[in-house]
């Protein structure tokens, strides 16, 4: 689902574009803006994949907005929707993916959505960020930085290479939520990211994995499943 901002200084135009987009099953949330400033505010407050921008708006034009978001780390895609035929070259120089002329034909707008979807699939997914509190400060850390998780009662401690963070979420809940993202339960007290395992030690009566230098025990119950996961990653001759 694609989340979008529709920005035009004429409210009827915003409503028309929003209505047409709402009929497309590929479109998720639609945020409406009747000024450039309102469009930027919508970008700050929401997760947005694409903007449908009018070019001529007071104060901040669509072209101005395109220049601003070009400096973003992950800029949303831009489609200009305008009655001005003469700004196409400048629009594409600002990396717009489409230029739709008014009056809008539904089929033409659907083509823009198709382009957005194709480009969104080609764009690497943004890392999922985890909110943690440390020393009275709230931080965001990428889940991809987490090597393993340790149970501490109703809490869980997230371990990265350089630090650890305590969150009020039971390990069982994280096991369910993060299982599809490569985290494996190896013990009642540990959940490990498979990509971060450096060594697996299988000895008589004792099994363990090494992650960032820490040796973590593998329970007898978890060992068969971990063996299966490791076997699936082996390179075999054709």
UniProtKB/TrEMBL annotation:
GO terms for molecular function: DNA binding; phosphorelay response regulator activity. SUPFAM superfamilies: CheY-like. Residues 130-232 form the HTH LytTR-type domain. Residues 3-117 form the Response regulatory domain. Pfam families: LytTR, Response_reg. The modification 4-aspartylphosphate is found at residue 54. InterPro entries: CheY-like_superfamily, LytR-like, LytTR_DNA-bd_dom, Sig_transdc_resp-reg_receiver. Keywords: DNA-binding, Phosphoprotein. Transmembrane segments: none annotated. This is LytTR family DNA-binding domain-containing protein.
């Amino acid at each position: 689902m694609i989340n979008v901002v529709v920005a035009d200084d004429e409210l009827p135009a915003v409503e028309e574009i929003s209505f047409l987009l709402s009929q497309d099953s590929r479109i998720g949330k639609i945020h409406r803006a009747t000024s450039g400033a309102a469009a930027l505010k919508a970008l700050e407050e929401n997760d947005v994949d694409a903007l449908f921008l009018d070019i001529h708006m007071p104060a901040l034009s669509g072209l101005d907005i395109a220049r601003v978001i070009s400096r973003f780390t992950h800029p949303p895609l831009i489609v200009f929707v305008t009655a001005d035929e003469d700004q196409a070259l400048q629009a594409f120089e600002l990396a717009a993916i489409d230029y739709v002329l008014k009056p809008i034909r539904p089929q033409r707008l659907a083509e823009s959505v198709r382009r957005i979807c194709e480009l969104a699939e080609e764009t690497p997914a943004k890392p999922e960020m985890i909110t943690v509190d440390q020393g009275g400060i709230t931080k965001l850390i990428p889940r991809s930085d987490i090597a393993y998780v340790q149970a501490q009662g109703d809490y869980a401690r997230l371990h990265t290479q350089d630090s650890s963070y305590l969150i009020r979420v039971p390990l069982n809940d994280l096991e369910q939520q993060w299982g599809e993202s490569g985290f494996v339960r190896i013990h009642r007290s540990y959940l490990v990211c498979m990509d971060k395992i450096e060594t697996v030690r299988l000895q008589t009566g004792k099994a363990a994995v090494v992650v960032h230098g820490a040796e973590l025990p593998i329970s007898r119950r978890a060992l068969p499943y971990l063996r299966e996961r490791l076997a699936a990653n082996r390179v075999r001759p054709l």
